[in-house]
Specification:
By secondary structure, this protein is an alpha/beta fold. It folds into 2 domains: 140 residues, Aspartate Aminotransferase, domain 1, CATH 3.90.1150; 225 residues, Type I PLP-dependent aspartate aminotransferase-like (Major domain) (Aspartate Aminotransferase, domain 2). It is 40% helix and 18% strand. A hairpin with a 5-residue loop joins strand 15 and strand 16. Helix 5 runs parallel beside helix 12 and helix 8 runs parallel beside helix 9. The structure holds pyridoxal-5'-phosphate (PLP). The site of pyridoxal-5'-phosphate has 14 residues, from helix 6.
């Protein structure tokens, strides 16, 4: 409870004072944040502070989730331009009010095809997609079992749904099994497939097997799954559990928006019940067209080449920081104390490298870290520069001292 809230015993504080006190509290905790400005059309640009003053010129960013560099791919940019020219800038209102543009339908058909599902529906963001699906399937009386490291949008979706939420320890299938065994009625198992701050992966085979045994619906958030993991065969079989797949258009596909893919009736139910679909304006035609063009690239041989380049870069950097076999382009370098992570990020900036420090409340206290994100379009020279910066920080691990967990996460030797 904030100091401002505690003061309500006497006279209530006026709102201006309350806001000021709340801001002061964040500042006093050393957690004040404001977005910096990055004048770049790819990975390199001038970094300015939030006032607009130049902080560092010619910085290489390892901060973006644009894993394949598709946000600046010529075909993607051209598709967005063409949609702007053809359909205009905005989409006007909710699709149930103004109707869809053809590009919304085309994108949904392509997403369903890509995911191997009957249908897909798009939302303005991935965050809205998670709020939507959870608020529809997980009402009061439903037990939702959620991995403790799931994304904030899943946590908020559970709260919105007013379900009975049981948080299970990270990737702990025995705990999940026990929680499901105690669930009195319908249940949902929800998990990121790649966890956004650790970059490790869920055990999808085990998760689908456990959920299937208890008749639970499986909700998978594949926002960061650019290099996999793929869904196990069991998730596609008729006697397997019902699986709904959430994703975002804003990372691998370089655009903006989110989606849910699954069986036709489930998607139709979202269209009819999901408030973040019904009561919000549809994604813009340009965003939808960009995502559609990006999906085209992704599913081509060029997409294969981009993904294998990304996998190669991941292997190089992950090996060097003691994370051999790491499954995703999110590479955490856990440093512990907040000050250490902030200082490490500042030191890298002096080397012309932007690698954000992630600290509480985004991650647990004592696990503050650098979060490196790699893209297929980082050049070899840029990655060499990153490695030199990490070496200077002293966080590179000699190959023979790395201890690698089954999920690809490092243990210090
Ligand atoms: C696992 C996960 N799910 C959902 C989202 C939300 O996606 P979007 O940025 O499209 O709202 C994110 C965003 O960072 C994420 O990491």
């Amino acid at each position: 409870m904030s100091t401002a809230d505690q003061a309500t015993g006497s006279l209530p504080l006026d709102w201006t004072t309350w806001i000021d006190d709340a801001c002061t509290e964040v500042e006093a905790a050393g957690r004040w944040r404001a977005p910096r400005m990055f004048a770049a059309d790819g990975h390199v640009g001038d970094l300015h502070d939030h006032r607009g003053d130049l902080a560092a010129p010619d910085v290489v960013s390892f901060a973006s989730n644009d894993y394949l560099g598709l946000s600046t791919h010529p075909a993607v940019v051209a598709a967005a331009h063409a949609a702007l020219d053809r359909w205009g800038a905005g989409s006007g209102a909710s699709r149930l009010v103004t109707g869809s543009r053809p590009v919304h339908h085309d994108l949904e058909a392509a997403l369903a095809d890509w995911k191997g599902t009957e249908r897909a529906v798009v939302f303005p963001t991935g965050f809205a997609a998670n709020l939507s699906v959870l608020s529809v399937v997980a009402g009061p009386g439903v037990v939702v079992c959620s991995d403790e490291l799931n994304h904030a949008s899943i946590i908020d979706g559970c709260r919105l749904a007013r379900a009975d939420v049981r948080i299970y320890p990270h990737r702990d299938l025995a705990a999940l099994d026990a929680a499901l065994a105690e669930a009195p009625g319908r249940a949902v198992v929800v998990s990121d497939t790649i966890f956004s701050m650790d970059g490790d992966q869920a055990d999808l085979t085990g998760l689908v097997e456990v959920a299937g045994r208890h008749g639970a619906l499986v909700l998978l958030d594949e926002a960061h799954a650019v290099l996999g993991p793929d869904l196990p065969e069991a998730s596609r079989s008729h006697d397997g559990p019902l699986v709904l797949r959430v994703g975002t258009l804003s990372k691998t596909l370089g655009s903006l928006g989110g989606y849910v893919a699954g069986p036709r009736r489930a998607i139709e139910l979202l269209v009819n019940r999901a408030r973040p679909y019904i009561f919000t304006t549809a994604p813009t035609p340009a965003d939808a067209a960009a995502a559609l063009a990006a999906l085209d690239v992704l599913c081509s041989t060029e997409g294969d080449t981009l993904r294998s380049r990304l996998a190669g870069l991941v292997a190089t950097v992950a090996d060097a920081v003691g994370l051999a076999g790491h499954p995703s382009p999110i590479i955490p370098v856990v440093l512990g104390a907040e000050e250490r992570a902030v200082a490490a990020s500042a030191a890298l900036l002096e080397h012309g490298l932007w690698v954000p420090a992630i600290r509480p409340p985004t991650v647990a206290p004592g696990t503050s870290r650098l979060r490196i994100t790699l893209s297929a379009t980082h050049t070899d020279e840029q990655v060499d520069r990153l490695m030199a910066g990490l070496s200077h920080l002293g966080v590179l691990v000699p190959a023979d001292t790395a201890v690698v967990g089954e999920n690809g996460v490092r243990g210090a030797a």
